[in-house]
Design a protein that fits this description.
Layout (H helix, E strand, L loop, with lengths): L6 E4 L1 H6 L1 H9 L3 E6 L2 H8 L8 E4 L15 H11 L9 E3 L4
């Protein structure tokens, strides 16, 4: 808040266990982005501890030097994750990272 941030980013694992942190961020009016590395994680981010996140960051879509040896999702994997976030009630922005 002191630096004027408009939001907070939570790694996939932290989102799963931080209902208190998510509630505190929401109470302060912060936007929340969450990382996801699978369709399962993306679906969980849509149902998280206090409602869906505001945006999803999916990675790695392509090979990246920052994570050598990690299997990229590819375009079809990224598409599958995007589709897993769409419901009749809600849809959020999904951003691709990794080798862009």
């Amino acid at each position: 808040m002191a630096v004027g941030a408009w939001g907070v980013h939570m790694p996939e694992g932290l989102w799963r266990v931080s209902a208190l942190g998510v509630s505190a961020a929401r109470a302060r009016g912060l936007r929340i982005t969450v990382s996801a590395h699978s369709a399962r994680a993306a679906r969980y981010a849509m149902q998280g501890p206090s409602g869906p996140c505001d945006a999803l960051v999916v990675s790695p879509v392509f090979e990246t030097r920052s994570h050598p040896g990690t299997s990229p999702l590819g375009v079809l994997g990224f598409q599958r994750i995007c589709r897993s976030t769409r419901t009749k009630e809600n849809s959020i922005p999904v951003y691709a990272l990794g080798g862009m």
